[in-house]
Amino acid sequence: MIRPERANSMIPEFWHELPEIIDQLSEGNEARVVVLSAEGRHFCSGMDLSVFAADNDVSVQAGASHASRQRASFRTTALNLQRSFSCLEESRLPVLCAIQGACIGGGIDMVSATDLRYATKDAYFSIREINIGMTADVGTLQRMPKLVPEGIVRELAYTGRNMPADEAKERGFVNEIYDDQDEMAEAVFEIAKEIASKSPMAIWGTKQTLNYGRDHSVADGLEYIATWNAAMFDPDDMAEAFAAQTENRDAHFPDHKRFRKGL
To answer: What is the CATH number of the domain that holds 105?
Structure first.
């Protein structure tokens, strides 16, 4: 997505490469936090027009001649595109994003699936699909109402208006606003370093539990965390945390174990 001359629009390759990269990081043991940032004036202008062409394998045109097959292919394509962002919340690593300038259409689909959002004061957000006669279908309408009041999401989705950074912070969509991109990057990486200093297993469990609780009842969420801790709690990490506090030093936790392929 490093295409600042095109406002980092999402070309066909993007939809394959993002989940590949995120899955690789999540399954490995070399990272504890992911930070999504962008080059140039704007964070992301959404789906590139090339995705609407019929000559690529993520085309929303689908290419099938028969009407029923075309509809089925369109649905399959939408589900595949959704996975490109679902990987962010499915990752065992927290995903932070640093947003400057425009965050439009698919950009909101993407950042809505991350754990934490930070923005510069010139950032703005727009659910632009309505302006091209389309209903947003890659995650915004499902995730954003879990982050801000539903009435606000409905207004944004019905009108296509821009929501400026200060309103996004007021509504709770972004965690903090910064004067410029450099200040934001420095602050976000400091937050990432703080998260990375914690027990990776405890962070993973916290993310899983929050995501599960978002989509289930309180009772179900309590049952889930009891089961998670019974299976995944690492007493060695707790012992190290207590020892570090007692000895007034930084704690040192082992990295994630790599996922074993084929299981």
So the answer is: 3.90.226.10
